[in-house]
Fold each of these.
Amino acid sequence: MLCVDCVRQHQRSIPREQRAPRFTDRQGNAIPLATYIIIGLTVVVYGLQWAGQVIPSFPDVSSLLMYSPLHTSVAALEFSQVTGQPLFQPWRMLTSALVHSMGSPLHLLLNMAVLWLIGRQIEQFLGAAKFVAIYILSAFGGAVAVLFLAEPNSAVVGASGAVYGLFAALWMIGRRLGADTRSITILIIINFAFSFIFSGISWQGHLGGFLTGLAASTPVVLADKKLAAGATPELRKRTNRLTWLGLALVAVVLVALAFIGALLIDTQALLGH
């Protein structure tokens, strides 16, 4: 998607003391460790999902980690008081990115393939910490969009929202490097078309993840552009702080939206479904 030499040249332009910590192989090539860890963790969770289906008394991992808007509603609190069952579980907005469809292993395969293809490039450009931040925020943003746009009793699984956030980050990085982003744009359009054409796909999560990816990658790319011409160490530190402040602001907005969305699902909607 991006010119490898362009990304490496960009890394060389950053002062050594300001470069994100990286693991390297014996040849000195950067190892995108965060990308590999996310892929490995997701695959392990998928294995646990299958274990829950074939091993007696093993927990149903899919049911424990998937997300439904009802899990983050005020109505869930009221329902818990009536039944005594803990239904309000906001952490599912993130854990749902770890579980995938049991009926179609292709769901996991495609998400992990895209993550492997583009995650390594984004991590090399942004560094592991900012890459992971954008990935998590995009997963969260996808769940927030599901909360607002999907049926209260719908259930979603998969890392697609986070992956669409990486699509957005890749597009932003391409623009920052002056690369030809037409191929990335076409890829995004095709994937969005599939989201609306085929049933059983959460276009809401895809849209939310993509918009969040745009918002989260904006302060990172703007900071990189500001420092491209060279800056003092103090300016670099201040810019880095502002970058993380921008990422934190995106997180605060998502939390606020999740809170508002929780108020929009009433008790009758919960009990009715």
Amino acid sequence: MSISATLPDAATPTGGAPVVARRRRGLRPTANGLPWILPAIVVVVGLIYFSIGYTGYVSALDWNGFILTEPTFLGLANFAEMFGDPVFWKALTHTAVFYVVTFTVQTALGFTFAALMHSQVYLRGVYKVVVFVPTVLAPATMAPVFRQIFDADGQLNTLLRAVGLDGLTQTWLAGGTTAMGVVMLATIWQWTGLTFILFYAAMSQIDTEILEAARMDGAGNLRTLWSVVWPMCKGTTVALATLGLIGALKTFDWPYLITKGGPNYATEFLGTYIYHTMLSEKRFGYAAAISVALLVLALACGVFMSLRNRHEGKA
């Protein structure tokens, strides 16, 4: 009698599946996430990074953008011209002032609205919708409304005359300071809703026992907001500051649609200046150089804000 016929099958343990089959199933390749992220990789590498590289190449040329014309290689001449361009520095200054004013006002309004919505306010749901609705409205649809309101014969001047304040009427969009104020007002009107939603969510995460302890220690509502709630919303504030800074550097829609960068470059931003330089003056090389500078500024600001937040978190 054969020995192999009497011995149990070593590859088939009692009450289980064959070990070989188990091993084969274990070696079977499992699905990974590459097919899901491949489209995003193609878009990022093939479109965004290629566009950035091509913009860097065009920034070294003197070219009007037409394929039939032969571009002239200038090296860093466009960047040298940019650093000596007063309009570029004016646009950069406008961006800095715009960021400080809009971020400060949006933060104050958003935090105040969020605190009010967490209190016993009648029809809170309606107020939330009213505050947030401007965020989802396109500037292209609302810019004509702002132009009409602040026109020399618009609703604002009409209202001022009706209440006897004729001395306050003026051509709001024709003055440098007032035109910038209108652009800031439109931006604040649109993005305060997003600031409000983020602060409202941050306040919802605060433990109620902490607020009750503050009140037991004798802190009033304002003291509790300033000393307890505001510090606990620091992460939200930093995130909004970072987004606001990058958004200010890329500002284009409101100043272009309301004032087109005027009057006399009073509301010129880097985005509008790039647009005018490229399409109106047909200087694609110089516009690309400003675009590269804008990208570097946005990256530097983002990295700075991130490192600062990380350093403060460790401290």
Amino acid sequence: MDRSSEGQRRYQSWPDDLKREIVSATLEPGASVAAVARRYGVNANQVFSWRKRLLAAASEAAPPHRDEPAEPGLIPVVLTAEVPDASEPLDERIEIELGGGYRVRVGAGFHGPALRRVLDVLERR
């Protein structure tokens, strides 16, 4: 925020292209909004505001994929009551089926932040 010659506050105006560039940088895997904001000399709260507005506008403008519902909603979950055989080793994998034919399987020792990055990338496709 700058001050004019009369001492009044004057807010900086950011070009839309630069806002999109900054928001895009925050969407990179492993990116921190605070770090990106510091790099561009912008308040992190301002970046969050731009990000929310631009992502909402993008989701409204983008046509829904043919396999996805037009409106966000609940997705069905199927639970099976399989009793593992004591003679077989216990399978501690989780399988996640996503739209677009993607399937992600993770074992007991998965790294949560890495899985979140993978799911974020697949969600954007």
Amino acid sequence: MDYEVVNIGGKTVEGIGIKTENKDGKAMRDIFPLWDDFFGSGKEEMIRGRVNTKYIGLYTDYEGDFTKPYSYLAGCETDGSGMPVFTVKKIRAGRYAKFVTKDPEKGLGEIWNAVWNMPLKRTYISDFEEYLPGKDGQPEEIHVYIGVEE
């Protein structure tokens, strides 16, 4: 699977989070309802200081590699101004392998399966998905950033 290595500046993300893991499909059972709650109860509209219209799924606080528990945050990038309403986490500045899909249904799973089977030298500090909304509000394109060693 194709990707490019890019340098990303640090980002601040505010949203709602959970602790999960990839074992036995637990992450899928946890993450989809988290997004449903985020949008279904209007939480995205409560976040102040948004810097763009994108949504971010942040993987952080890894307890090891991708087979161990980690934290996931569904949210938006903010400028850090104002009092946060929800959990705030940082995306570290650094090098990331960037993957892109225009097929939100299948593409995201294909990217993650490829990442798990690639010899990337991952940092396991922060990885994130950036959802670029289309005209109907649904993701038109998804960028997946995997933290890699310098």
